[in-house]
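Marked as duplicate of an earlier ticket. Keeping the data here for the record.
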Amino acid sequence: MRPGRRATVESDHRSGGKHLVICPGSLGDTVLRLVAVRVLQERGELSKTLLLVGTFPYLRLARVLVPGSLLSDFDGPPWWELFSGGAGCSERLALELSGVRKALLWLPQDEHADETLRRAGVKVRIWRSIPREGVDGGHVLEHLSGVSRKELEPFPETILPRRDPQAEGARFRAVIHPGAGSPAKRIPIVCYRRLAGALRREGWEVIWLVGPAEAEEPGDFSPCDWRIPVVDSPSLEELTDLLRGASVAIGNDSGVLHLAAVLGIPVIAVFLRTDPEFWHPLGPATFVLDARNPAEPQVRSFRFLTPTEIEPSGVLQFVLLELLKTLAVNFPPRTQRS
């Protein structure tokens, strides 16, 4: 693994003071970066006094994952000044940077921003961008944190209590999210519709989740069954609450499943294009259906960062088998497609 680039190393990593973390990105990116922040805080490499700059509304997850942090919107002033290439530093930016001794930026290194931070007295500046999938191996969290898998164990515990579906009148509750930010990551939606039908026949409560990426695209993302409730583009707080009450979250490689996993919810994720070793959701029970070769999909399991040989419970095994069956019928190998 390549270490993050450092402009200077003048300050002790375990020193106090305010630290700046710039972590813009999608829902999935934000979840992974906040987990990395938590890891680095627990290792003493980041201060407990943090200024987090990222993408709203996703950055609000820091209130749960990294409580006590100050939050600021990356897309608003004054942060664009860091990368504008202009001379000088506005009063507002100087005020935001006042007292910051260390900055961790998950972005490609920018000479103008580096110089602005140096003039503001930020003694340690770490620039770390995500490498291409497969470069140096490992999980993306190892690259985000600069910490090896061995050193990352034991993994931080989940921090929000789960809700018990049975206490809420559901035998089992599945949240199915058929979308993903990129269409290339999605298996045919009919696979999830048939899975939802099979679960309902077994007495499951099924909730169908549609995100903003799907809402903005043409096509029918409905479950095609009026008995299945649809949750359309919930707020971040509503989404978090919904996932906490699930027996399992099911879907493609997406930010929703990354969030479910860090909340401690069992996850079944279908990986169609991306490498599950590098991108799998980080949780206590993650089951990946690796469909990069649709002719021979493989089930893999992970506990946080570690590949495991654990068998899914009877409940989850049923879900996996049904998903494999519907994949075989509705998503044949490329050579069989017209």
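See parent ticket for discussion. The chain has a mean pLDDT of 87.
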